[in-house]
Amino acid sequence: MTQVTHICKSCGNTFSGNFCNECGERVLHASDRSFKRFAGTIFKAITFADSTFAKTLWLVLKRPGFISREFIDGRRVNYLKPLSLFLVLNLAYFLFPVVQLFNASLNTQLRSSSVLYALKNLYKNVVATKVASMGIDFPSFSLIYNLKTVGLAKLMVMIFVVIGSLPLNLLYRKRNRFFTDHIDYMVELACFNLLVNAITLSAVAAFTGIGNYLNETSLTIFFISTNLYFLMRSSAQFYGEKGWRLVVKSIIMMLFLKVALELYRSILFFVTIWSI
To answer: Which listed residue, 136, 183, 251, 267, has the most CB atoms within 10 A of its CB?
Structure first.
């Protein structure tokens, strides 16, 4: 049987088959332009009906640290990239931000208890100066701030990931991990938090009405519990940590995560103020 040859539309190479052996460009057929194929593409884009997406999401929940370990070991084709998963979950979360995790309203920045408690007076002075310079009242400024900070938070979450990865270089310096390996691990942790502590909790709060009962204390307990679960399971999986060191290092990382979140929110505050 004679093979049909094609001339690549991108590089001009002559080849047989459906893919150019020089640049990888795919040959388009009439079926690729059918309404059925178009509808299928739209359906997948809307519902994320992709086996790798569902498989990766499930593994992040069931076996924390496994996806990161697979990626640094070079086994990647069967999973969605952690960064791609993060971007999808990040988008979904910021469309329905009921629980404030990586975004923070002006009231949250000014009133919530903080590791950086000494900055609160500075925050208030900065806001007062900005309100006066704009010639508006505080409620109006708060509305402008909240609309602005949601968009910025979506773009700046990676700052939290980088800050949170820094102590891992010290805690696991003997585990033969590169700096980017710790970044990949923190991306998976951010995915876990977006899925469990943001999207799922927001959905439950919206549909069950428990949002009225969520306060700082209950949220803190929930966040600590879920993150300890992730840290202990993932540290054993990703770093091969065991025994009492696993427990101690997980608790230490919990403290560092709190500091990382507060530093991220502080940076977000000043960037939002500057951008208004």
So the answer is: 183
